[in-house]
Amino acid sequence: MSLPRIAVLISGSGTNLQAIIDAVRERQFEAEICAVISNRPDVKGLERAEAVGIETRVVDHKAFTSRELFDAEMIRVIDGYAPDLVVLAGFMRILTPDFVRRYEGRMLNIHPSLLPKYRGLHTHQRALEAGDSEHGVTVHFVTEELDGGPLAIQAVVPVLNDDDEATLAKRVQAQEHIIYPLAVKWFVEGRLQMINGTACLDGQPLPAEGCQLHMDR
Q1: Tally of structural domains, the chain
Q2: Angle between helices 44-51 and 15-25 (to 10 degrees)
């Protein structure tokens, strides 16, 4: 019986990619990372994949005259690997509706905020400026609404009195590396699904915030 196949899309350093690579190599779940695909050449994430023998591809978005043409080529490349799951790990592109529909229900993203708060960029700065007492990170299914798909899991961290953007980002990122492999594990084991637009775990609908983990720091 073949292992579930995961394609990971990146744009940069690939720290979440590394967390998933480590989880697979440590046999936290049974799966194969069949490809790592980047829209930027010469990024650290490609080196991480190549170091452990994972096939890599670059589809440079700058070579395309429109988002639609770029996404069409991405679909062609991704489908060549026949993945069961597409994982966005710091993939910094806004996706076209055609792309999202192609993989809906089998594409996950991670976003550094407690969605639905702070969609988009500069999430740590925005949480600090708002005086929030809690911040965190969310893994969600990808839909056509930017950072708006059903939530699978969140890690909640307190905002400390002496936090600045860098310290808060560092603590949130540590949780990213825990909850993203966990969400991937749930998916490849058949436990996490999107059913009728709702994230479900073990066949039961999750609450709107997904499964929440609260951290002391």
Answers
A1: 2
A2: 10
* Whether residue 114 is found in the same domain as residue 217: yes
For the chain, how big is the Rg over CA atoms in Å? Answer: 17
111 among known catalytic residues: yes
- The count of residues in the chain is 217
| pLDDT tens digits, one per residue of 15-45 | 999 999 999 999 999 999 999 999 999 999 9
> In terms of domains, do 217 and 115 share one?
yes
Domain limit, last residue, from 61, 83, 103 = 103
Range of the domain at 75: 1-103
Question: Which position among 61, 111, 135, 177 bears the catalytic label?
Answer: 111
d(CA 83, CA 87): 10
Token pair for 79: 């489908």
pTM recorded for the entire structure = 0.97
